[in-house]
Amino acid sequence: MRLRSGRTCGDDKPKSPDSTKKRKRETFSAVRPRQLSSKQRFEKLTHYSDPISGSSSSSQENIDEHPSVQPNGELASGRKRDKGAAFYNDKVLKRLMPLSGVLDGTWHKQQSDARPEQYSLELDTIRNYAKPALPDGAEALLDRLKAMQQDTLRDGKLPLSGDTNKSLVEKILEKVSPETCQDYRRRKVEFVLSPEETHPHAEKSDKGHWRLNLPTNYQYPIQGLILQSIDQILKIEQDQDGNIPNSSRRAEITARVFQINEMLGEKYGYNWKDYKLAENYHKDYYDGIDEAFKNQLINTKTAKETLNEIGHNYAKEKLLERIKPEDWNVRMIFLSTMPGSYFEESSIKERVVESPGFRVTYRAEQPVKVGTEECRTLLKRLEVRKEQGINSTLTAAILPNSEIWVQPAFFEDKVMSQHSISAGGNPCAWAGEIEIEGNKVTKIRDQSGHFRTYNAQEPNILSNFALSVLEQHGYDTSKTKVEFTLIHGRRNLEYRL
Length: 497
Known about the structure:
Strand content: 5-15%
Helix content: 40-55%
Structural class: alpha+beta
Strand order of the largest sheet: 8-10-9-13-14-15
Radius of gyration: 36 Å
């Protein structure tokens, strides 16, 4: 133990001043960092290692970026730079600047500019891995359902028991959309086969049981059967709760339908390029992946399920943003309550309508925009039909930009148009039926099974908006009769007046 006088315990002789200084010097040098020359310090600070790739840049590359500084620590002018804190601080700041970009999101941009090939390769790897795909066993079930459908259409009867057909649809839904199956179970909905139905249809039976009717003679691609079975949960919720689905719930189901269509892939999925909302989902899904990568939330080791969730949630949020009204005159924007139906409705141009003793094949007419020459021609044709005692009602969709698109409610006897076609699959500010005589709108009704543009609390708000848009297009609405589906109930139009 060292004493205050400089001696140690048990040592009678005092230490000489020289030996004490030497020991202090040795102790200090043991913990003191080795002094670097200005050249070594420069090389150490300018040698930068990439945190992701592990590659490093040479001091010469950094010197080229800062030509005013030479390897020997001199300035370009030849004047010796000070070895004090100024040199050290300048270089530290230059080395920390790219690292600080990690925090504010600029680092990836710097790296993508500095090494575009490697950055692009890593992102492409993640994007390919994030591509939605069917879970194990789902494709085999779809193959079986397709084969069964083909046999049914060929022979006119189910080749296997109805329970097998129904079970296949349930198993496929359980694989591709377990959330939908949970929704149906929570609502106590039973899947049943119905020879009378042409498409999936949810309803309450005479005995008070809720059921999803599945057609036994479905004539279109089986992916339509799956996607429309997901649609019907919105109808069940409205019928049971007494309220139309809100924007958030509609967006959730719409995004779910688009996600499953992506999972069905090229073999069973519809082409999303024919459906603007589905095309937006596809783009937003991968934009979400890109955004997460730029913010260092994902990398090549991220689980596929996590990537799918990130892309899907991002696309769903973007969908919600798109249906927020930007014009103060537009009170609400409504997504279709049957987003899966439009894939089929838009892709099949020729349809067969069949009932006992009745069969007709027809080609659907394309909607026309109010104010165009095509619309004026259509209205003249409907005037002639009305004189012949045939219904001249129009199905109409008013878009958020105040465009009005219309079709005849009846193409032929028992063959009706659909609001989803009138809107082109896009969201609506109002959808319903319109009757026009000359330049006067005689009646409007907010009846639309696809969009259900109702407002139970303030029913006049949306109808007044529709009337104001019709007035903007030059129509007289001073004596227009307004009917509300929630108040007056649904009605079935008759072809013959």
